[in-house]
Amino acid sequence: MTTTDLWDRYRSHLCIVEALDLRVDVSRMHFPAGFMDRMATPMAHAFDAMATLEKGAIANPDEDRMVGHYWLRAPELAPRPALSSAIIETRERIADFARDVHAGTIRPQRADRFEHVLVIGIGGSALGPQFVADALATRDDPMRAHFFDNTDPDGMARVIARLGEALERTLTVVISKSGGTAETRNGMLFARRAYERAGLDFARHAVAITGDGSDLDRTASASGWLERFPMWDWVGGRASVLAAVGLLPAALQGFDVDALLDGAREMDVATRRHEVASNPAALLALMWHHAGDGRGTKDMVVLPYADRLLLFSRYLQQLVMESLGKERDLDGNVVHQGMSVYGNKGSTDQHAYVQQLRDGVNNFFVTFIHVLHDGDGDPLEVEPDVRIGDYLTGFLLGTRAALFDADRESITITVPDVRERSIGALIALYERAVGLYATLVGVNAYDQPGVEAGKRAAGSVLELQKALLDALRADPAPRSAAELARAAGRPDHIEQSWTILEHLAANGRLERSGSGPDGARYRVS
Amino acid sequence: MTTTDLWDRYRSHLCIVEALDLRVDVSRMHFPAGFMDRMATPMAHAFDAMATLEKGAIANPDEDRMVGHYWLRAPELAPRPALSSAIIETRERIADFARDVHAGTIRPQRADRFEHVLVIGIGGSALGPQFVADALATRDDPMRAHFFDNTDPDGMARVIARLGEALERTLTVVISKSGGTAETRNGMLFARRAYERAGLDFARHAVAITGDGSDLDRTASASGWLERFPMWDWVGGRASVLAAVGLLPAALQGFDVDALLDGAREMDVATRRHEVASNPAALLALMWHHAGDGRGTKDMVVLPYADRLLLFSRYLQQLVMESLGKERDLDGNVVHQGMSVYGNKGSTDQHAYVQQLRDGVNNFFVTFIHVLHDGDGDPLEVEPDVRIGDYLTGFLLGTRAALFDADRESITITVPDVRERSIGALIALYERAVGLYATLVGVNAYDQPGVEAGKRAAGSVLELQKALLDALRADPAPRSAAELARAAGRPDHIEQSWTILEHLAANGRLERSGSGPDGARYRVS
What we know:
alpha/beta, globular, Rossmann fold, 5-stranded parallel β-sheet, Arc Repressor Mutant, subunit A, homodimer
């Protein structure tokens, strides 16, 4: 293909969302002639399914739930007035709360003003807020965000140590829909102890975002936390970044929440169009289908050329993989669907693995994200007529060309800047693309049945630990993992017992003599 | 397989490196009976190739270079006394320099002591130092690390803004082997401007790590920078974390550099063993070969259950993908080898994409990393006999079991803690595994011929930009991208011209009227 042919292909397929100054270019995907026509009927079906979902149908059949994240930025579309009012009222309460916190009307126990926000959450309760915080933070924000997003006590201790005396000026936001997420509960207990050790009343520094009536909701209510905000069962965790989960931290950091929502709303308008050529989400969904043959055979490598978009791929890992990675289709057939996502940022990742992308195994397609605005700083010319940011554009175009020359496919998304409207637009673009693609391949994008098995198994590990500790206390003689598994009534779980015992011994909770799975003997100190 | 059978399989294959208290478990990989025997001859060949490499042969034939990163922690193995002395002398100079900086003997222009280190580098000159910094940093370190790892002016401005007045207590380390890496040169110029604007002499705050005689070396020498440390042509960028590239930032942050090296040295001893069962690197290489059929058909998902190991997978992306992702094998046959790497940390990633791993497309194997020690903080019991860190172990074992039940493969590496020795050991483990695997599949692990094409193409984009700006200045009439491409003498590059013009317009360097690839007209302001 000559560069002139390419230019024609580029122009004819370029999708521009004028209201957002956002563009999607699929000219470097090798979809064959006739592909768009062939996909017209499945795509029409996907549009219909999406329209039905937006009207409030039970779009998540496994959990018997509506799927309403599109209403968050267009409350008038919610199928019941009570839902519309709940959305509007929550937005207003968030704005009021953030204003009062910034003004010092809502203030910490021992200081004038909250200057930090510690968000405790995991999965959808952390990835969206982390992405937005990293994308939009500036030095002049009224509050700075920190996160507990795991159940690693060392990680929590490090965050608390970094806060240091600023803990007394830190507002903690605990986020869990069910209120029963173990990692988040543990983080909350760790934070509470830190406040107490600093002589502070945790309740006077705490806010909950949770489902109505959950354990967390009751705790927050009974202990008199500063405020509670809702998580609704019709908003999935991975789509909650534009609900209170994402909006409250964003508002506290001083970001323009209305612009975030507005960007998403505009993108929703664009992605409701039934003409594929002018619908950027439909184009993405079709390109994913083409690239991975509708079976996820290619990885999605996400390369934004902007430091502020570093966490976008981590956010997308959940949105894409948890939505699409399903054992069965909607008819119950075993399909093992999905699409793997990775990537950090360009040009940095060029120096890490473009070697493989260009020369190695061709098991991916790239999504480049080009940011037109170089940021508000004073530009630096490093050569005549060349500024530092020109190199970002140069490397993006250069890598895109080098991959194309080597027969590697890529999509390029162009956004005007990394500000609230563009972030809202990117979020909404991928939410819709995932929803449309899920219909194309026939899976439920809104459940996650596969995550329970690991949690249940983890629970049984903790039960086994308790049984082992009881058995150890009952008899002070040194015993092997096999003997202790037997004594704990779990003779078939020697391997897990050995790992648990090694972990306990490494933390000074047992004495160990000997070593190795057969040689080690354990007793309580 | 019953749990008893599994326990037997676990015990019989468990590889323990006693000196490091490190274990590799491959029992959850479904390699068939006879696999180890079948691979014995190719593995023996890989051991031989590695021994030849360690003796100083030209192991990187494309670049006619020795591959000497194993000598960095065992200088007595270097094939020439001059190399041994260079390694030992550089280590001593690093230790002396860090001691003098900490003592304030080497001090900034306008303050008593350096308290921050700004590392400017990309690829191998950033990923290792970033991984080590994030893994080992504590609040009590004498210096805190910051990074420029890209050519994004907005990202650089953010780092400088965060430093604020602390810039006067910041030592900048510029790392580039060739001294000509554009991103790093740009970062250096940006940092220099920031110092100058603060009324500071950059040279009095700057150190170079670079090849002898490079542009950067000459600049640093001519401008009287504080110090210069070497990068040798026999240490590849992606293996330079235990050369000055990684050791100087580590020493400045107060990490135990000797323990880092010692951990790597011990691992080298263990991974030189010719008995596969007791060689953890050989086991990893064989499992990768089994999983991906020697063709990289499975992605490597790296899940350390520890916040401090979050950046390990980013580090491994370069080490694994740049080493293995090759078009041709050593005989010149087109093979398109490689292995994709992604992952962040557990249990966090469980809430992002374990849904897909368990139920979805089976295109991966997991490497769990279990850290036995929960950290030095005061433990918190959240239920009787259950501490916060027990949940990490529980989730790891639970997810491992749930994946195994769903026929998904995994390796588990256990390390005693996240301290210097263990970090050095992990680095050396993967360096050796990548080297052995490369021989198994017949590729050169030490070159990166595919990265030049993108850089060259980027250079031509910047040339095109200059030509467009010249053409714009020559005629004030508004013109289209097509017209300007012609006027710039590049009529075949309309598409790149349009993207460049849009980028220039978005940053106020051109005036644009109209919109779209055909409609937009540009002129200089």
